[in-house]
Amino acid sequence: MLTPLPRVLADLPVSAAVLSLLEGRVELVPWDQPNGRIDAIYTYGHPAVGPELLDRLPGVKVVSNFGVGVDHIDVAAAAARGIPVGNTPGILDGATADLAFALVLAVGRRIVEGDRYARGPEFLHFDPSYILGREVHGSTLGIIGMGRIGEQVARRARGFDMTVLYHNRRPNPRAEAATGARYVSQDELLAAADYVVLTVPLSPETRGLIGSAELARMKPTAALVNVARGPVVDHAALVTALKARTIRAAALDVTDPEPLPRDHPLLAMSNVIITPHLGSATEETRRRMAELSVENLFLGLEGKPLKCKVGQGND
Ligand code: 8YV
Questions:
Q1: I want to staple 146 with a disulfide (CB 3.0 to 4.6 A). Which of 62, 120, 141, 166 is the partner?
Q2: Which residue ranges form the domains of the chain, and what is each CATH number?
Q3: Which intervals hold domain D-isomer specific 2-hydroxyacid dehydrogenase NAD-binding (predicted)?
């Protein structure tokens, strides 16, 4: 045990799994009360960690993030101050790809609408023409972002006899060999896909990646599925495209902002499915994320190399 107990600034409450790993080993300091010495920062995808915060807390030895996406952390500012940033890559790919595929199926077969209908007063008897969806099997899946999560989505698509196209900063021959996915330009992907799935990290290059021009390239029968980060999609353009039926539907596990204000037009659209950032939300994956993020935290506190450090090529 480190003595005195390291003081860790954290966005509280942390999950029970994280708490059980930290109890008695650190003192958790609430985010809005960074009083006294702070030895480390533990984050959950928010709030932002930037140069001002790091300069106010000169004792910080490590920033550990529960999650793979570190768009809320200024990693360069941390590096400039000699502070490593840890994250949890590799252990949440399967869960996030499962959710992406669940959303493809749900948006294709209109499962959420069907559930509402089955509970409501209009469902009096079977009708061969209600809630007709679009097929998933045999259709074309377009994956934008062929990293580890994209590859897992592509693997799942094989079981549904889908044609899989992908676009990425550069071709990924390993993923192609493993999944049969074919590299195409983003424009070609948008024009051909029945389902466009976004699995890119949020960065200055991917912010607003899908706007009105990109939505206009999609088929009017196609659906957009976002399990990446909300700001990858221009939400005003998405609302316009859905209203104009430029595309058929959307399924969003992430939004901009998150959550959406209660009067946001997307919340009133029956052809939109919204889930509350559930990509990695399984008991098994969240347990692994707790373990890895806490391991990174303690390695950083002890001045040792992190198990997963952002920028080391494994994020
Ligand atoms: C996290 C995620 O649950 O890993 C990520 O980037 O989006 C999710 O797995 C989320 O960031 C909260 O920590």
A1: 166
A2: 7-90+283-301 (3.40.50.720), 93-274 (3.40.50.720)
A3: 101-279
